[in-house]
Hints:
Protein name: Glycosyltransferase family 25 (LPS biosynthesis protein)
CATH architecture: Alpha-Beta Complex
Organism: Neorhodopirellula pilleata
GO molecular function: transferase activity
Strand order of the largest sheet: 2-1-3-8-5-9-7-6
Domain Glycosyl transferase family: 6-115
CATH topology: Spore Coat Polysaccharide Biosynthesis Protein SpsA, Chain A
Shape: globular
Radius of gyration: 18 Å
Keywords: Transferase
Largest sheet: 8 strands, mixed
Amino acid sequence: MHPITGFVITLRRASARKAQVDRIVANCPVDCQIVDAVDGRELSQAEFENVYCPNLHRPRYPFELNRGEVGCFLSHRRLWQRMIDQNLPQALIIEDDVDFEPTMFSASLAFAREHAIDGDYVQFQVRPLKGTAHLIATDGNVRMVCPEITPLRTSAQLVTLGAAARLLQATARFDRPVDAFLQMQWLTGVRMTAVDPSNVQEISQQIGGSTIGSRRRTDLFQKLRHEVVRPIYRYQIAALSRRHAAA
């Protein structure tokens, strides 16, 4: 197989994560470049409003995005654009809050590269896969599947050039976090797959917690609303995902 490049996304101001970023680069089975994440705090109001458009798609995303979530989305778009500009058939995109054992992850990545076709987006999930999934390939105890409902998180992924192009086209403006947007395969036209086991772990709590930030729920009403609307939204996504998978 041809060599590929890995990209490690990290906020420049997140100095506490530098040691972990260096560890990822040292242990990754492919050559990695460190990429500055888009810092949502530094976006002007015009830049923020140019890309973030609430209520753009259905089902409606019920929460307002914070600047960290917008910056995270733009960071992934930056790398999809780089893949186009450099004509990269595949790229490994990693966030800075993951860890892996080099030999085991190398096997998972090699398996993903062998079975991915152009247009695929291959997730290396940090949580066990749940629910129905269509089997694409298997070799011993490792498998590639197409989950009926795409799992959330963008901790680590193998992105193909075709997927990058489609995602860029679909996300000039967006209304939800990048991982939630990726669930909508009926909109993106991208086949979302996953390798299991991924041999990737998420360690954000060990290195200072999330750099994206959380949505503030300052009163009881907001907290109750969140607990009500979140499962409704997830039900809507699940229903549309199953309908798409059956089509």
